[in-house]
Amino acid sequence: MGCMVLAILFNGVLLLNNYWSVAYHETIAYQSLAGHEIEKCSHVRVRIDNKKQSIVKKFIVPILMKTMDLDGNVIVAHQVEVQKKKFSYSKERKTFSSIPYPIDDTLEYYQSTEGIQDQGQIKKADLVWGSNKMEVPIPQFIDIYKEHMVAPFFVFQLFTTCLWLLDDYWYFSLMQLWMLFFFEGTVVFQRM
Question: Rounded distance, CA 44 to CA 63, Å?
């Protein structure tokens, strides 16, 4: 009986590691490819250093492939979007970097420009910078609720409540379980 409980506990920890650790999820779910094989890649691991707060955040994000046909020339752009910031792949440097904006010209140059003139320039600008609109997705209740359910502290609370269930305090444990799920639901509603 004890081995069965340990096996279930071990499998639960392995499952939750996919949500808790980006490195673990990368090892289990993805295969590493060389940088010059960007056409074969579907996702990329992104590391963002916040130097002000000394925090390093890691994400696994999908690669967005945009293709465009300009007068018979097919152009493919590989981009990723992390925290509403877009990064474009450079084949020369074999890395993703911020999308370059034309900011180095003189003031006279910018005053004399007339903007985008034809459909080809619109397509090219859309390929590089994207459309000129801001989308704020509103997450669904269940998505935020799942995120709260796999938080380490909540899992610890569930584990301790299950231990209380094994004892003679099952009324208390069931009430505590109901309160845990209800409280997490109210926190999710406040986040929405």
Answer: 7
